[in-house]
Amino acid sequence: MNRVLILYGSTEGHTRVVARAIARTLALNGLNADVVEAGSADPDPTEYAGIIVAASIHAGRYQKPVVQWVRARCRVFGDRPTAFVSVCLGVLEHGDPTVTADLDAIVQRFCEATGWRPGFVKHVAGALLYTRYDFVTRWMMKRIAAKAGGDTDTTRDYEYTDWDDVRAFADEFGRRLAPQRVSDTRRAS
């Protein structure tokens, strides 16, 4: 079995882009990945060799459909390799210990709420999509960005994702599946 489930939740669409980038990298390593938006389908985790869940932080929480799916399904993840990809602009302030502690606390609350202990947690910087925000969200995000020393020109969008780092994460996740693929090949012989 060389299929990986990438279940994601996205508010403005950037986490979907991250999930698809992970899937492309896994494909280059000979793995098939199903990219599924939480709430749009109910994939069975037992049909996959590995599971990646990706969600973005908004107001200190992840998307509700992601939380609900993980809570309902994590007990059957078994010993499969798993990872949680947390997408957030706070990653840009990685040098600030308070921000790092806040991000870790949000992930911890997610784990406690779902009962899931992912094998690996990856923090990924998101995007400021000013052109997609309504007036209030744009104003609020501009204030947050200004406080953090970020970009505040609301006539354009800003992408902060380190794509090389995302690909390296996907490569590493694929390597964690390599022993399973070897044993699957031996069973088929």
What is the topology, as strand order, of the major beta sheet? 2-1-3-4-5
Strand content: 15-25%
Calculate the mean pLDDT score and round it.
89
Could you estimate the helical fraction of the residues in percent? 40-55%
SSE class? alpha/beta
Describe it.
- This protein has 189 residues and is of the alpha/beta class.
- It is 44% helix and 19% strand.
- It has five helices and seven strands.
- A five-stranded parallel beta sheet has the order 2-1-3-4-5, sandwiched between helices. Strands 6-7 form a two-stranded antiparallel ribbon.
- Strand 1 (3-9), helix 1 and strand 2 form a beta-alpha-beta unit.
- The longest helix has 26 residues, at 163-188.
- It starts with a strand and ends with a helix.
Compact summary:
By secondary structure, the protein is of the alpha/beta class. The chain has 5 helices and 7 strands; from the N terminus they run βαββαβαββαβα.
